[in-house]
Write a structure and sequence with these properties.
By secondary structure, the chain is mostly beta strands. The chain has one domain (2-165): 3 Solenoid (UDP N-Acetylglucosamine Acyltransferase, domain 1), CATH 2.160.10.10. Helix content is 4%, strand content 38%. It is built from one helix and 22 strands. The longest helix is centred in the N-terminal third of the chain and has 6 residues, at 2-7.
Length: 167
Amino acid sequence: MKLYLSLLGCKVGSGLKCLRLPSFKDIPKGNIQIGDKVSIGQGVIFEITRTGSLEIGDRCTLGDYSRYSSIDKISIGKAVAIAEHVSIRGSFHRTARDQSIIDQGDEGAPISIGDDILLGAQTIVLMGASIPDGTVIGSQSLVRKSDKLHPYGIFAGSPLNYIGDRR
């Protein structure tokens, strides 16, 4: 797996575990970095364009059918657990009224996910979001740029609500 991903242009650390190879929208051009001891579930999709980048820290788990899509940078820290069907989206279609949506292209903003984080199943993280170290995001939550999160907090819902702190 490591050799195959390296041949595709990914920078891959040691100890990679893949249930199945991820799918790619574009062939990586050195813009995807995967740390040591990363586990990639089945059905994972990397939609990182030539202008985007994806950095995954050491000891992360990417759950089954999770999706990473951006024309900008997605940074995932160390020891991050991402559950199944999570969508991390660093870009969206423009939506001006004077032109068809399909003709407008995309806009993007970086996403920063710190260290020691849990993203629950079916969570969506939108462009510009920043998740600080130690945060827990409950299942089926929506994380936006405007959400004010603090380290080691537990949040859930849409809109995102503060539940408490990790002990």
